[in-house]
Every structure is written in C-alpha cells, then in structure tokens.
Amino acid sequence: xxxxxxxxxxxxxxxxRLIIAAVAIEFGVPEAEIIAPxxxxxxxxxxxxxxxxxxxxxxxATKSRVAxxxxxxxxxxxxxxxxxxxxxxxxxxDGKLLILENFLNQMPDVQAS
Length: 113
Fold this sequence. Notes:
About 70% of the residues lie in helices and about 0% in strands. The protein is globular.
C-alpha cells in the first residue's frame, strides 16, 4: 500500500513551484517546459526528473502526490527518482543537487493553520 500524504495539496503545490523555478535556473530550461504535459527535449525531461526527485526527497512528498502535481503517472515519478538517485555518483550532478537541496531546506516548515 502507498503511504498517505499528510501535507495539504496547496502546500505541496507551492513547494513544487519553488523547486521548478530553482531547477529551471540551475539547469537552464524554461519553467513552462518543465510543467508542460508533453515530454519535450531530453534536457527538459531531465530537469523534470530532477524536480520530481527533489519534491520526494526534500519535502517527503509521496510519489502519488508528486505525480498529481506534475500531471504524470506514479510510475513516471518512481522512475525519475530511481534515475536521479542512480546518478548521484556523478560529482557535477551531486554538487548541483546539494546546492538545490540546501536552498530548499532553508524554507520554513509551514503547515496549514
């Protein structure tokens, strides 16, 4: 059984927008293409995979919630997390991810009132 996401949807959606903006800057792709329903060029798909990975790892969002926010299937999010995790041995990618994770971890832990 999949875990249930206890964070309200609007908070996860706001977090995803922040992640997408940061990843777009770091990877040099337009935000609109990361959230587009079409796959797009490989650089865009990769930035989307990084975004989904960060959403799961940094904010502990469930894969089903991430899929809902990104308009993708649960298995697509699972694949993205596996791909990015497997590539963390690359020092360049790992450095970028550490910068993004540190930035995102500075966000206040806000919950719905």
